[in-house]
Amino acid sequence: MKGDNIKTKLLNNKLSIFLITSYILGSSIIMSIDTSLKQNSWLTLIGAAILVIPLYLIYYRIMKLNKNKNIFEINKSLLGPVGFIFNIIIIWYSLHLGAIVLRNFTEFVFMCLLNKTPIIYTTILMIITTILLLKGDIKAIGNWATLVILIISFTVVFSTLLSTSVLDLDNLLPMFNVNIEELIKSSYSVVTFPFAEVVLFLCLTNFFEDNVNYKKILFIPLILSSIIFLLIAFRNLTLLGPDLMHNSAFKAVTASRVISLGQTLTGFEAIIIVNFIFSGLAKLSVCVLALSKGMTYLLKTSNFKNSIVPCSLLTITLSISLYENFPQMAEFVKIYPIYAIPFQIVIPTIIWIACEIKNYKQKKLNINQPQLSLIN
Fold it and tell me: Domain of 285: which CATH number?
């Protein structure tokens, strides 16, 4: 049901597009996508954008065939006890992904900006900001995401223009010297992080307006985020070179340090860091919101906002205990493409097939009913 039986302003096409775009950029803008192909990393992005299309079509069909129903409601009505298990798994993924995003950003702030401030303080500050965003109207998150995308787009374009005096186009060479197996493996990594993480929006379909175009709100963000990622990859590669880019923990920050900005722009690096944190808040808000929707449905309560604070506390608790240090966090990124398979591919595919079967039977029934009435 829309807004869990409370008066909720809904997301139109524009706000949905900006929110999903901001979500895709999210933590990937600081953790960076797979750069194992080094100077051919841009091919990874293009390959990933193509490979993820079938998954986006699956997500689109689930939304299209079940208007005004989120994935928790769909699972219960279509799959019964199996659907209940799927709901538990999706709730876990919402919690875990939110904790990962929160830890990514607090680790990022600790290493790049506030290395004398304990991570717990940054964690608490981010989660409080997230709670305040979610306690407002859903459109507030959409408006926040719109502002974030505009700021990030400006920052990326501006920093790229500033780098023209120091970039080296030779860093793009040699091109295309990669085998297909490596390209597919690298591209699949980018499919799972971050493109297919939009699967969580299946939890939030109640927040879209009835006339929203599901195909547009999925595929336009894919195009926009791919363009931004390509621009970032070009800037980082031409500034840092393939080896330094690949080995750098936070490539965007390293690139900003290389750019000669002059005396008046000495705080540009800090501005970049703050902009990235804004993007992280948008993604974290979606994860906590999806978790809140799941817990609300599981506990059969009527107002998802009552679950926001408990779900935020769960997220912060898991975030703190996820890793002991940054190397452990970086190591998990390597196994994430395998870990994400059931959440992003297997479960949505099963749900999609069940939806298509139900839709086929319904169409067949609708065709037969007029014939039966004529006979009678």
Answer: 1.20.1740.10
